Amino acid sequence: MLSRIALRQLMGQAASAGSLEAVYQTALRCVQDELGVERASLLLFDAERTMRFVAWSGLSEEYRSAVDGHSPWSPDETNATPLRVPDVERDTALASYLPVFRREGICALAFVPVQFGPKLLGKFMLYYRQPHTFSDVETATAQHIANQVALALEHHRLSVALNEQLVTEREIRQRAETEAVQRQASESRLHLALAAGRMGTWDWDIASDRVGWSAELEFIHGLEPGTFGGTFDAFRRDMHPADVGRLERAIAAALEAPEAEYNVEYRIVREDGACRWLEARGRVIIDSEGRPTRMVGVCRDTTERRRAEEARALLVGQLETLAKVSDEIAGTLDPNEALRQLASRVVPTFADYCVTYVADEGSIHPLGCAHRDPAKSALVAALAHASPVSVEDRWGPGMVIRRGEPCLTTHCSIKEAEALAPRSMMIVPLNARSRTLGAIAFAATDDSGRRFGDEDLKIGMALASRTALLVDNARLYAEARSAIRARDDTIAVVSHDLRDPLQSIAAAVATLQLEPDDAGKAEGIQSITFASTQMRLLVQDLLDISQIDAGRFSISKDKVDLTALVKEAQTLFQPQAEAKAVRLECQLAADLPPVAADRHRVLQVLLNLIGNALKFVPAGSAITLGAEPDGDAVRVWVADTGIGIADDHLAKVFERFWRADRREGGGVGLGLAVAKAIVEAHGGRIGVTSRLGAGSTFHFTLHVHLAAADSWRAAGDRVVVADGAAQAETARPRPSSEVAVVNVLWDITERKRAENAVREADRHRDEFLATLAHELRNPLAALRAGVAVVGMASGDPETVVEHCTLMERQLQQLARLVDDLLDMSHLTQRRLSLEKGRIELAAVVRTAVEQSRILAEQADHELSVRLPDERIVLDADPQRLGLVLTHLLSNAVKYTPRGGHIELAAERAGAGVRVSVRDNGLGIPPDKLETIFEIFGRVDRSLETGYKGLGIGLALVNALVKMHGGTIEARSEGLGKGSVFNVWLPIAVETAAPHAPGEAAGVRRTGNCRVLLVDDDQDVARSMARFIRLLGHDIRVAFDGVEAVEMAGEFKPDVVLMDIGLPKVNGYDVAREMRSKPWGEKMILVAVTGWGRESDRRRSHEAGFDRHLTKPMEPDMLEALLNSCSSRAVAEPERQEGRV
What we know:
It is a single chain. The chain is an alpha+beta fold. Helix 14 runs antiparallel to helix 15 (about 520-550).
């Protein structure tokens, strides 16, 4: 039985009304101590009538989780008895629990009900590690303990209930005492409450018409105590005239229905003129016959509440305005226009007048100006523009933009703004991405009586936050579009700039093949060399821009003799200067000190500046290279007497991709940007002075080589350039910046998309430029090597022919690359077009295979063709479709290891034909099959093949196939398992005999032709002139527009081959001038230019050109054109644009 000590301890815990946990633990110890059981547990029914563990000893969590909730009795059991299990292995009722019993080491157990009277509270569990035979004494003892535990639990419940009752009674007694004290002070508190709440009582004796007011009500009406007249008429005199009728109707209604509540709100006008709102509540007292005798009640001053409600209504209106304004300007993609619109949208709902400011590159200027009085809007704008704003200001928009924090004040330091009478001003910053884009100035005037407060400031900040996001989104969108335009412009201009040297090389190679004497060959070699140099400089500029943007552009300083370097630059450009009849002179100080510089990079700057000057100076001009000491630096300059630069262009000449519109073309716009980056990386400065029509002078400085100088690092230091700014490689800690936090949440999904678009556009452009530079180097290297071999083997005709063939092949590769660049630019701008006709598939396949066979043979590939026996006719552009097949074959050749097999097969497929190009090459990863046709979506296999690719070929192929109404797919079983590209094209219904691509229709005639060649690039002009002369034609050359018109009038040419971008007068105007002359009406005018866009061809046609060909024009095409020049029925290849 339970010992008295244990029982006293258990009941003591239960009576304490403390934690039940202590009762459970005490009960558990009693069971273990009395029965000598090592493991035991106590489980009780919870509120959901489920048996739960409340105390245990020696049991694992796994076991408790497995058996939790198990009970041999239902919660409604009224007479539960102990259950004994001597051996769990033999008890079938517990068979499902055997695995957990075994893991826990339980061989015998007992269930002992914990029951208080008829109510089952829970159970005790006893556990044994060996099978155990329970005696009646053990069972009785366990049940006795369980009963005592049940008693203790019930005792604890009663103790808790009793304690709660005592607490309740104590609270009731205390409350009664408190209420007694409160009642004693109720009179005084009532008076205080009435006064504090601006309330007063009234009593109207209806029969005598006497009205009594409390002192508080007299105070509300602005009267001294005891001075109220005491009649209803005296009360009526204080009523607002507009409310008298409504108040009298409310009183009459109350007298008619005494049981109804009297409640009315009205205005009074006090003797001091102040208008106040009052709310009257009362009731009617009736006599024994039901007649009204008195009205009593209370009046409360509700003026402040009414004002708060009006303010709240105004706030709601302002918030609605905020949402409306945000929606209205959200669709504006011009950030400045968004700020202009904002000013007019917030007036007059939120402010009496408003000015929005934009911060742009260190300057601050107003954009939007509006006033609630439209007649004063012009005054606001005039004052805003007349008051300069600076970030150094100690007040106003400048200070707010500098700090990025709002300003709320009644002060206005802008003297001119006094004419607008601002009563209160609030200026909030436009913060986005840790930058302040501008500010919004809100003003309240005496006209409205508005005064800004903290709530207004919160709304203003919310509006500014939303507007800043919209403006930032618009700027990001503009940046993304600008990046895409820059890429497309770069492609177009690079294509144009490559065409001139390609034309020169093509003409020189053709001349070498025809030239009978060594002197002519030497001149051709010189032309190829110069053209290759031009392309090499362009490639270097492209690569440098890519490295600058990627933060990888670096210089390595050393001690450099600047005199020798300038003279080297002069020597390199001397042949070109002489060819153009330009004097290239040097003016170097005799005592030039050495400079700390990267010799190669400084030479690059000089070559870019000299090359730039040569582009824009006429024959007979002079270019001067100079250098002189300038303090601890050396000042270097390149001066010319050319056409000069307009004043409004001077600030832009060093921006990348910017080109002065001094003539058509004018370069890719990278050379000066690269020069600026190089000079600034040296710690120097670069600038330009110019006068239109009088020439330009570009100048830059380099630090003198002084090892002890503190202003620059000694020789051997390395500098890395990121985003055009020079930085030392050693990182310096940056000071922390303050961040303004606005408690407004906006959806910034579109902004993130815009940011990603900018980053993606920049990444694609940089990757594209780097790859383009790489792709141009291989043919350039072959051309340079070919020139060297031809120069050394002038007496070996076979060697000359072999290397001329090699150079011609590289030229074709370069020309195809340029055409792909231009096509990709047209594709991204949706200007790519087709010129369809009926053609035979077999003819297109033959042309593509012939163009690709030499590449396949060089790689030892087997190239097989399998075509159907039937004749298949397509409605297609032969040149574009040939380009599709050539790209697919070229792609297979490049990505198949040497000795591979490539097959081009065609078969009829329904209403169309399926053309497949299959190889056993490197294959395509599965994750790239979906993106391989996207622009720049290439698979980089440069390590395996040495070829990286621009990532535009397959994108162009995909677009061209779709434009033909077809589809294309790529398949590959994985890396190393080859690839197959399937093109499906619809078959045309034959209505006329097709012709093979490149077939000429019309008359061909050979014979002497008078030709006028007009091109300002003298190397291109001389190379083409030599070739045309070798063909037996009479050729004259002009280098500018004015000379072309004069020479044409004297020479009367049959054909004019003319560039568009010409000095003095451009090609379009020259063509119009020639067509206006009698001798020019039947002349064949051919535009030969680097520009090949649809808009360029349209302008050529409008100017009077018969044809528009893009450089480089193939020698065969030029020969065919000139041989047919005597007739206007010229056999004109269908818009071949110089691509054959």
